[in-house]
Design goal:
The complex is a heterodimer of chains A (about 425) and B (about 450).
Chain A: H1 3-13, H2 17-30, H3 35-45, H4 52-65, H5 70-82, H6 86-99, H7 104-116, H8 120-133, H9 138-150, H10 154-167, H11 172-185, H12 188-201, H13 206-217, H14 221-233, H15 238-262, H16 267-293, H17 304-329, H18 333-349, H19 358-384, H20 393-412, H21 416-419
Chain B: H1 3-12, H2 17-29, H3 33-46, H4 51-63, H5 67-80, H6 85-97, H7 101-114, H8 121-129, E1 137-138, E2 144-145, H9 156-164, E3 167-169, H10 183-198, H11 200-205, E4 212-217, H12 224-234, E5 238-242, H13 244-252, H14 255-268, E6 272-276, H15 279-282, H16 292-306, E7 315-321, E8 337-342, H17 348-359, E9 364-365, H18 369-375, H19 381-402, E10 408-409, H20 410-419, H21 424-437, H22 445-450
Helix pairs in contact in B: 1-2, 2-3, 3-4, 4-5, 5-6, 6-7, 9-14, 13-14, 14-16, 17-18, 17-19, 19-20
Chain lengths: ~425, ~450
């Protein structure tokens, strides 16, 4: 092993990945067929933003240079998991296991690929396999706790996290797992404590930071309701989730018809529950962020974008409701129109500030601005025709466009390309 | 680079020294020696002592076979400007060509002592092959001693430092007055470092020793190393600097012994400042260490800091890091790096000073350093350099298109300040997490204050 290669490994151990890549490349200039150097290169590039594709190419080269070895194959699979391609990742992890069924790294990688496919049962089996090979495998133990929680087996998940913490009380991931289990159980204060402990050990851990934010948000009853729904849904596979949503939409419609047949006023709570269900998941984050802004400690956990989102959604939603109520109460209808439009604009606005897709940010910003502009024009039209019904003549056209725009933003919001960052850029 | 376009630019701006030097180098690369010489003579007519022109003329003379004359000119240049590493290196090369490897080795060592980036392994190998095996030893006065009797002469420390591969300066020439702005940091250093070292009796009366360890931390490219050098200059101490690569090599070679030798050398040179750049690489958290060799080296570092085997009085150990969170907690205990100084991105005055430095030697119009400073809030020194590089590239590409000299305008600089994003932002994102969640001992309070989270 050359001094440069050793130096590169030391640099990686110290988290200096850019310098490590330069050093490995220099080593490769002298030994261009060193498979281990390509593995080292891939391991470093995996940690650098936007270099996953390069890391994958390096892992492929390493596989070509040592085709009988399981590790480069498992490494390729691990990178594919990060690229959100669980299917090919699973195939490669299985090939790696065919070469070396005792590779803990390959079992853990297969577990990750199965988590990516929402196949919790098989993922659990993989983590248990890795643990049977090495009972002290921290990654396998943490994955097992994670996958148990995803199946709502909270006691078992907490027991696994505690078992890990008894072996290694400074394991940030285990604390975060315990925090998520507590949050899922509804023990907000306990969850907060675990997440803080996890972040004390590793302040950069995204998994724990997200958990802490969620536990702060869960202080509001509205958001707790949304969290319960999210935790309930995560137990199911992607297709089952879609079936549940479609079933609920039909269920609501049947309920509404039934309620109307009993008493027309019964429709109101059903309709409210329906719209809460329909739009709650879009708005809950922004509203919870707005509520967090009022807490001097909790707001420090928010990113700048989340703070802006909280401010904008809070003003649009609560300001809109106030204007709507006041407008109708004092019978100044243009104010009520503005209020209603502000509430409607929260939907596209909830997909602007924290949306990792740049394309999505542009699309939803355009929709949001158009909704507000149309709303102002409609309010002016209503003001110019006092005594007329609010939704009549030109206002009726504006109203139709408004509803279409808001509805379209909820449809567009389901497109991954407008809501997710390209994993290659991660 | 298009030589014709540059010749046109030169015709439009015949007194532009940087441009003259650039064209002369390109002419030299094309073996147009006479043209190059003419241009260099013009530089000397404008700036009689221009060292780059003098060096280039020596090089041209050597190319023309007049090596002896070149050596004479280089002798003159080295005595006039003893800190010019490139001149020492060329002198080493020509002296070696003239068949005097021992002297060539002395000149080579001098060049590398001044500027490690001048190291040329191929030349050194040739000199060694020719018999230049004895290491030359330099003092800060620039004199060259023969290495006949290692044990006796005064420059032994420099020789030992070279053997250990660390940078060594008998006295750091840099002072606080040479570093623009950063008054808060300077004041911190005065209170925590300079006063204790200058008034040891006062501290002894309170049962405290001068010296010890101080850690400078902050975003990369913000002047931690410069501050360390200036601190050594202020206390008029020998300055020994250990960089990342020397540290990494310790993990590979006979590490503990080498580290001990470095400390011993510093103790022998007291009062001295022993500076560890990228301290996190040497003082890494032992929990992250997979190799036991790394753990032993870290234990050795701790023991050296404690002065377990020798006294560390009058020895100041300065560490600089941009990842203080990667340090093993043991290093922050009393007696080790127990004083911590946050070096934030350069303030307004410092940024104006940095802008002036980068503006030097460039054809600038409407240049207002204060305005650039105002527009570069949160920029590191390296970011400000990037602003100038980007503006210069814009001027050059315009010059290429027009075929005439285009100066770097204030407008180009302003545009570049908008294009270059401050690199410190990412560092502060990480630092904020550490300051919020892992600040039980108040280690990162300065970051919270800087971010306006804590008053």
């Amino acid at each position: 092993m050359s001094a440069e290669f050793t130096r590169a490994m030391l640099l990686r151990e110290r988290g200096r990945h850019t310098e490590a890549v330069a050093t490995v490349l220099s080593h490769l200039a002298h030994q261009p067929e060193d498979a281990h150097a390509f593995i080292e290169l891939a391991l470093n590039r995996m940690e650098l933003p936007g270099q996953l594709a390069l890391a994958l190419a390096d892992a492929k080269t390493a596989t070509g240079l040592m085709p009988g070895d399981a590790f480069p194959l498992a490494l390729q699979a691990r990178i594919l998991v990060q690229l959100e391609k669980p299917k090919p990742a699973l195939a490669l992890a299985e090939s790696a296991l065919a070469l070396d069924p005792e590779s803990g790294y390959a079992w853990n990688t297969k577990c990750l690929a199965l988590i990516g496919e929402s196949n919790w049962k098989s993922a659990e089996a993989c983590a248990r396999n890795a643990l049977s090979l090495d009972a002290d495998d921290a990654t396998a133990s943490n994955l097992l706790a994670h996958v148990l929680r995803l199946q709502n087996r909270l006691d078992e998940s907490e027991a696994e996290a505690n078992r890990r913490l008894a072996r290694d009380p400074e394991n940030a991931f285990s604390f975060a797992n315990a925090g998520w289990a507590a949050l899922q159980r509804g023990d907000i204060a306990v969850a907060e404590g675990h997440f803080k402990e996890s972040l004390r050990i590793d302040p950069q851990m995204e998994y724990a930071r997200d958990g802490l934010k969620e536990s702060y948000r869960a202080r509001s009853a509205f958001y707790r309701m949304f969290l319960k729904w999210a935790f309930f849904m995560q137990r199911f596979s992607q297709s089952n989730r879609m079936a549940i949503i479609i079933g609920m939409i039909f269920g609501f419609k049947i309920l509404r018809v039934l309620a109307a047949s009993i008493h027309p006023l019964l429709v109101i709570p059903i309709a409210l529950a329906y719209y809460l269900f329909l739009f709650g998941s879009w708005l809950s984050g922004g509203i919870a962020n707005f509520l967090m802004l009022r807490d001097p400690v909790a707001r420090l956990a928010l990113d700048p974008a989340e703070k802006v989102e909280g401010g904008v959604i809070g003003v649009l939603f609560f300001g809109g409701i106030m204007a709507l109520v006041v407008g109708f109460a004092v019978e100044i209808h243009p104010i009520a129109v503005i209020g209603g439009v502000m509430v409607l604009a929260t939907l596209p606005a909830s997909m602007i500030f924290t949306n990792p897709s740049q394309k999505g940010r542009i699309v939803f910003s355009l929709i949001g601005v158009t909704v507000l502009v149309l709303g102002i024009i409609m309010a002016l039209d209503v003001a110019a025709h006092p005594g007329r019904e609010i939704v009549a003549d030109r206002s009726s056209t504006y109203f139709t466009y408004l509803i279409l725009l808001v509805a379209s933003s909820s449809w567009l919001g389901m497109l991954d390309s407008l809501r997710k960052q390209d994993p290659r850029l991660k | 680079m298009n030589l014709d376009a540059l010749r046109h630019a030169l015709a439009a701006s015949p007194d532009n020294v940087p441009l003259l030097l650039m064209v002369a180098k390109l002419e030299e690369d094309q073996f147009a020696m006479a043209e190059a010489r003419l241009l260099l003579d013009r530089v000397l007519a404008l700036e009689p002592g221009n060292r780059e022109a003098l060096l280039a003329i020596a090089r041209l003379l050597d190319f023309s076979g007049e090596t002896s004359q070149a050596i004479v000119r280089l002798e003159d240049l080295c005595s006039r400007d003893p800190g010019y590493a490139a001149a020492w290196l060329l002198r080493a090369r020509l002296t070696h060509e003239e068949g005097a490897p021992a002297r060539a080795r002395q000149y080579y060592d001098k060049a590398v002592e001044i500027d490690r980036s001048q190291a040329d392994d191929a030349l050194l190998a040739e000199i060694l092959k020719a018999g230049g095996t004895k290491r030359g030893v330099m003092t800060s006065g620039g004199e060259v001693h023969d290495d006949a009797d290692d044990a006796a002469f005064e420059g032994l420390d420099a020789s030992a430092a070279l053997d250990l591969g660390i940078d060594f300066q008998l006295k750091s020439d840099l002072k606080f007055s040479d570093v623009g702005g950063m008054e808060q940091v300077k004041e911190d250093i005065r209170m925590k470092i300079i006063h204790p070292l200058k008034n040891p009796q006062l501290f002894a009366a309170y049962g405290k020793k001068a010296g010890g360890g101080v850690l400078l931390y902050g975003p990369p490219g913000c002047g931690k190393t410069l501050m360390a050098q200036a601190t050594a200059g202020e206390i008029e101490a020998t300055f020994l600097s250990v960089g990342l690569h020397q540290i990494l090599d310790m993990y590979i070679g006979e590490s503990e012994q080498k580290l001990h030798k470095i400390f011993e050398l510093a103790r022998k040179s007291k009062p001295a400042v022993l500076f560890f750049d990228e301290t996190d690489a040497l003082a890494a958290d032992r929990r992250d260490m997979r190799q036991s060799a790394g753990r032993t080296l870290i234990n050795q570092f701790l023991s050296e800091l404690d002065g377990a085997q020798a006294q560390n009085d009058d020895l100041l150990i300065l560490g600089a890091t941009n990842a203080p969170w990667q340090l093993d907690g043991a290093f922050l205990r009393p007696g080790r790096f127990d004083r911590i100084i946050f070096v934030p991105p350069p303030d307004l005055a410092a940024r104006a000073e940095i802008a002036k430095i980068h503006g030097k030697g460039k054809p600038l119009t409407d240049f207002d350093p204060a305005d650039i400073a105002k527009r570069t809030e949160g920029f590191s020194g390296a970011d400000i350099k990037a602003v100038f590089d980007q503006a210069t590239e814009a001027a050059l590409s315009e010059a290429m298109k027009k075929g005439t000299m285009v100066p770097v305008t204030g407008k180009m600089l302003v545009k570049a300040t908008k294009d270059v994003k401050p690199s410190t932002r990412k560092w502060f994102e990480s630092a904020k997490n550490h300051a919020l969640y892992a600040n039980q001992s108040g280690f990162y309070d300065d970051i919270l204050t800087h971010l306006g989270i804590k008053k």
